[in-house]
Amino acid sequence: MQPLSITGALLYTPRIYSDQRGDFLESFRMSDLGQPFDLAQVNCSVSRRGVLRGVHFADVPPGQAKYVMCVSGEVLDVVVDVRVGSPTFGRWEAVRLDDVARQGVFIGEGLGHAFLALSESATVVYLCSSAYDPAREHGIHPLDPDLAIEWPIVDTPILSDKDAAAPTLKEALDSGILPSC
Length: 181
Fold this sequence. Notes:
By secondary structure, this protein is mainly beta. Helices cover 8% and strands 39% of the residues. It has helices at residues 30-33, 161-164, 169-175, and strands spanning 2-3, 9-12, 17-19, 22-24, 41-48, 52-58, 66-72, 74-81, 92-98, 104-107, 111-117, 121-128, 137-139. It has a six-stranded antiparallel sheet, with no helix packed on it. The protein has a five-stranded antiparallel sheet with strand order 9-8-11-6-13, with no helix packed on it.
């Protein structure tokens, strides 16, 4: 696991074993993570090109850590520090995840997560430390100009109604919904 610039976010690059049959890899190994991660739910998202999902985060406590992999296609995966008091508050880091390098990103509790489908179709699987609870889930608008995430968008991105109506980081801060570190 390689630490990203935001504390609590890690990048995993698996060793891929290839032969005439195809590939084999360990996409996740708990001992490599170096911290507890209770698996409570596995999500699978299939998106077409231009779909932008997030920035999502959960109340802390209990929070929701995620381990994210793109098993088919390619996405730009983004981690956003939405933890009030964090030295990297408001910063983001992007990693391309695809079905070739098969990297995974660990996103710790209190961090925001978003991704943009870059390929014609992209399937993202994420392991979650707690089950989805709509009462504890929140979002930040992924096109918030103050965040200035550098999305490689050619056309208008496809957002859910919920993501399109999400507050900016400043509005979320002012409303008191952001987690603290």
